[in-house]
Amino acid sequence: MKIEILGSGCAKCKLLAERAEEAARGLGVDFTLVKVTEYPDIVARGVMSTPGLVVDGVVKSQGHVPTVAAIKDLLR
Amino acid sequence: MTVESKGCACAAPTPASGGGFWKSGGWLLAALPAWVAMYWVLKPAADGLAFRALGLAPGSRLGEAVAFFVYEAPKVLMLLGAVVLGVSFVQTFLSPERTRDLLARRTGAWSNLLASLLGIATPFCSCSAVPLFIGFVRVGVPLGATFSFLVSAPMVNEVALFLLWGLFGWKIALLYTATGVAVAFVSGWILGKLRMERHLEPWVLTVPFTPAQAGSGPAGLRERLDLALQATKDIVRKVWPYILAGIAVGAFLHGYVPAELMARVMGRSAWWSVPLAVLIGVPLYSNAAGIIPIVQVLLAKGAALGTALAFMMAVTGLSLPETVILRKVLKPRLLGVFLGVVAAGIVLVGFLFNVLF
Which end of chain A is less crowded, N or C, counting CB atoms within 10 A of the terminal residue's CB? Predict the structure, then answer.
């Protein structure tokens, strides 16, 4: 599973990365976590409000930081 | 004043802690009557503390100053907490994506007005300014309306509205909101009329972009409540020292300094005070909640209303970090025109208020 965190590096993006990692570990899945920080790359994924969460190329959340439990649901 | 890296004063939510009762939000039901009861007894309790428990004489300078502080400080913090919680909850139903779709089919001055009004309530973080700008422009939101939104969103928002209401009364709150919307509306309209599309950086129009609809809002009620509580904790934790400092200065002035003296020294007779306030305010950056206590001090010191409001608009609406961010999508000329038009609008509003009031 490829998890991408979209955002230019603000505090919310860092928190989303931490929570996504915690959620993925909690589920016990194989995953790689990548931070996408360049604007053209963020826009190319169709996201216009950061932080964004993209799983295997699909946008799962944008513009807010979901809770760990909610991220687990998004990863399943 | 909160000046942060990356030009972003958006609250980063604190990780949720605790479980069961706290997580369920059930405690909120218990907290509501407690809040109302506390607010109700605040004034007598504060007077009791100042004049009876501390033994200060009513009408004395120290007594009045202390009574003012022990009443105003908890009042404002309670108002702030309640307002931010309510607003954050409502905002989980709104998103920039929805606003964009509402604006996509509009043209002309209506698009500017609608964009300025939607900017009041749409949650917006200046670290998202670049992707948001591209998202708006690429689905066909007029360039002028996009600018209207970019001016209105950080400058006029519900936290500012309710905080101004709590501290200065509804007249100033509505005046700030109405004139903020007017500045966003007019400057966006002018920028649209100038037809400066060719002054966008080329990648804005060429980068592949297909808007993703999914996931622009939290899922259930519980998640919304959780997000609202996080935002509340974060904002209150960030601004309470400024608010207390502001009230402390206000309390000192309340007890010790005759108002007429201050008004004469820093009144509206100095015409240059408005442009100067805007000039100082533009490079600075703070969100509305952080700047209001400073505005309170300025007003308490006898600064003219127009000067204080113009300063607040300049600080929240334009900033050095935001300029650096917007440079990625705007060529220097358009960026310069944008800054100039908005700053001129704010100065005009300042003059208008100083003449009218």
Answer: C
The domain of B59 spans 24-93
Is A22 a residue of the active site? no
Nearest CB among B10, B131, B223 relative to A12 is that of: B10
Please report where in the chains the tokens 């209150």 appear, as a residue: B236
**In degrees to the nearest 10, what's the CA dihedral of B126, B130, B136, B139?**
-150
Q: What residues are paired with A33 via a beta bridge?
A: A3
Q: Chains A, B: CB contacts under 8 A, how many? A: 114
Tell whether B301 is covered by a domain.
no
The correct answer on CATH 3.20.20.100 for the domain covering A2-75 is no
Say yes or no: ipTM exceeds 0.85.
yes
Complete DSSP assignment for A7-64: SSS-HHHHHHHHHHHHHHHHHT---EEEEE--HHHHHHTT--SSSEEEETTEEEEESS
State pTM to two decimals.
0.82
Interface of B with A in 158-217 (CB under 8 A): 203, 207-212, 214-217
The residue ranges of every structural domain in chain A are 2-75
Residue by residue, pLDDT tens for chain B (357 residues) are 333 334 455 656 555 444 444 555 667 777 888 888 888 888 888 888 888 888 888 878 888 888 888 888 888 888 888 888 888 888 888 888 889 989 998 888 999 999 999 999 888 877 889 999 999 999 999 999 999 999 999 888 777 887 788 777 788 889 999 999 999 999 999 999 999 999 999 999 999 988 887 666 666 787 788 888 888 887 788 778 877 877 787 777 666 665 555 455 456 667 788 888 898 888 887 777 777 777 877 787 778 888 888 988 998 888 888 899 999 999 999 999 999 999 999 999 999 888 887
Q: Tell me which residue has tokens 């309470």.
A: B240
